[in-house]
Each structure stands twice: as structure tokens, then as C-alpha cells.
Amino acid sequence: MISRLHYISQETNGKSHVENIEEACKAGVDWVQLRVKNKTDDELLSIAKEAKEVCKKHKAKLIINDHVQVAKKVKAHGVHLGKQDMAPKEAREILGDRPYIGGTANTWEDIQRLAEAKVDYIGLGPFRHTETKDNLSPVLGIKGISAILNNMIIEDLHIPIIAIGGIQVEDVFDLQLSGCHGVAIASLINTSEDKKETITEIKYCLPDGDF
Ligand code: TZP
Ligand code: MG
């Protein structure tokens, strides 16, 4: 089951990935993407092992961004792959059938390629401008996202779409109304003064059921 709220970790507010993950789990997230940039392989593996323990304690799923071998070593629930990362089909061979494999799409062409590769979900964005990611692709807005979702209906493609990029609480209802399965959020949650309230508000705008 693909959750409707994907929490993305960051080092922010003087807190480590693992500290932020624990706070997010306590505040109600059940799907955590560990997104570590600019660390050594050893540092990443050690963070991933700790993140796994925290997620296990809170019964949250752990998805590793970019690093298929790390996902395999820590027995993560899945991996999220951008366009510069390993091809989803290769990741599937390494990880086997069970783990979730998600991919990033910025265009309709990306969606078609990821559908062909049989990913389990697609992160589609950026919805808005965001400082969280470098080298951002052009912003899609609600119009761009809706156009892509309409193409998916026409082509009979059924893959959960998770909108990403600069998402605020007030965007979530419109995104789910446009046909997105859910949302992926980093800074809104990581910088929130009251994570429980923020996460409750986000979840309130999303349907209960999973895909
Ligand atoms: N990919 C596209 S936008 C983005 C990623 C990883 C960052 C999302 O973070 P935020 O802080 O919710 O904009
Ligand atoms: Mg990546």
C-alpha cells in the first residue's frame, strides 16, 4: 500500500535526519523517504541503519532515496530513483519483487518511461518552486499536474502519483482533487513549529484509503 503522505527527511533546524524522522513519525507519518545528500557512503549507511530502527519502532515504512545498495543492506521498504539514478528495472533485479520502487517524473514523457519500467509509484513535480532541491525542473503548477493526470486517464495508466515540490497545506486538497494519490513533503514538515498539527492538517485533506 502506497501511503498518501510521503515525508522527506532533511537536516534542518539544527536537527539530524534521524531526529527529524523520529519527530515526524511521532507526529503521524507512516512513510519516510530518507533523502541524504553530500555525505560519505559510510555516513549514509550509518544514518540509514538508525533511520530503519526509528521507522520500525513507529511502524513507518522507510524508503531510501537514490541508493539501491543501501536500501538492500538495511532491508528498507523501498527505494526512490531520480532520472540520474539507477534505472528502475536494474533496481528491481537487485532488490527483488517486494520492495517498492518509486521514480521521479517532471514531464509526461517521464511518466510513460516509468510506466514502462513498472514502478510502484511516481513522484511528479515540481508543483511549486522550492529551495529544497537544486537544479529544479520547470514548475508544473496545478495545470501541469492536471494535464499529465488527464493523459494518464486517456492512456489507461494506473500508477499512484505523488505530487512534490513546495507543497503547502492549502495545496493538498486541490492536488488530491486533481487525481493525485498523495503528496511528498519536506520543508513544510521539517520547519514546522508544531509537526503534529501540520501533519494532521495535511492528512485531513487526503482520502483515508490507500491505492
Ligand atoms: N524533488 C522535487 S521537489 C523536491 C524534490 C526532492 C523537494 C521537495 O521538498 P519541499 O521542501 O517539500 O519543497
Ligand atoms: Mg535521486
From TrEMBL:
UniProt keyword annotation of Nucleus present: no
Alphabetical UniProt keywords: Magnesium, Metal-binding, Thiamine biosynthesis, Transferase
CDD domains, per database record: TMP_TenI
CC cofactor: Mg(2+)
PANTHER family (UniProt xref): THIAMINE-PHOSPHATE PYROPHOSPHORYLASE, THIAMINE-PHOSPHATE SYNTHASE
NCBIfam families from the UniProt entry: PRK00043.2-3 (NF000736), thiE (TIGR00693)
Family per record: Belongs to the thiamine-phosphate synthase family.
Name of the protein in its database record: Thiamine-phosphate synthase
Organism: Reichenbachiella ulvae
